[in-house]
Amino acid sequence: xxxxxxxxxxxxxxxxxxxxxxxxxxxxxxxxxxxxxxxxxxxxxxxxxxxxxxxxxxxxxxxxxxxxxxxxxxxxxxxxxxxxxxxxxxxxxxxxxxxxxxxxxxxxxxxxxxxxxxxxxxxxxxxxxxxxxxxxxxxxxxxxxxxxxxxxxxxxxxxxxxxxxxxxxxxxxxxxxxxxxxxxxxxxxxxxxxxxxxxxxxxxxxxxxxxxxxxxxxxxxxxxxxxxxxxxxxxxxxxxxxxxxxxxx
Length: 249
Known about the structure:
The protein is α+β, with helices and mostly antiparallel strands and 249 residues long. The protein has a domain at 133-247: Trypsin-like serine proteases (Thrombin, subunit H), CATH 2.40.10.10. Helices cover 22% and strands 35% of the residues. It is built from 5 helices and 12 strands. The strands form 2 sheets. A 6-stranded antiparallel β-barrel has the order 1-2-3-6-5-4. A hairpin with a 4-residue loop joins β2 (48-57) and β3 (62-65). The relative contact order is 0.17.
């Protein structure tokens, strides 16, 4: 009887152990493709500033991130340059980057670097169903102690329309009015992301295919509260919009 019970328990635990082992393998393959997006200034203090997360696609020289990560113009009176941080640890490789394509409406940007980073595979355009387990890897609190990518699990909670609100009617532009009439769809995720996760790849936990990009976090109180008291609600841009942007290159 005891032997039978032991075998039964082992059979129950085996699929769980295999799934955990498979996910660990997926994460190990994802991490080398995740990079930091930032600005380098040889005369600044600090010299390098991490602004968000990105990941490689295509031939490995194309880096995807959020538009809002690279939206701010460089200081023309300084020696600033836009860069991609590659590798892990206190001294990542700094690779100069050029913005080659943007889609502000869907909060997407594509950068080009001379170095090659292992590219990730993008999923097809079909939306994921509610309840699908996913994961994302990035730099949730920046690079205070160095470049160390962190992985979080989550779930697709809903496919929901998104619009950019304005303070009052006078600030409604033609583009924003169109967005109100034709909002695009984003994933609301039951997952805890942080400001530094902007641009992080959201991927299938089994295949590692990228299904979306983290682009914003629901903040309950203040910006500081996003770190001390996260809401656990994050949003991501479905990969179909990235596929369309890459097709324009």
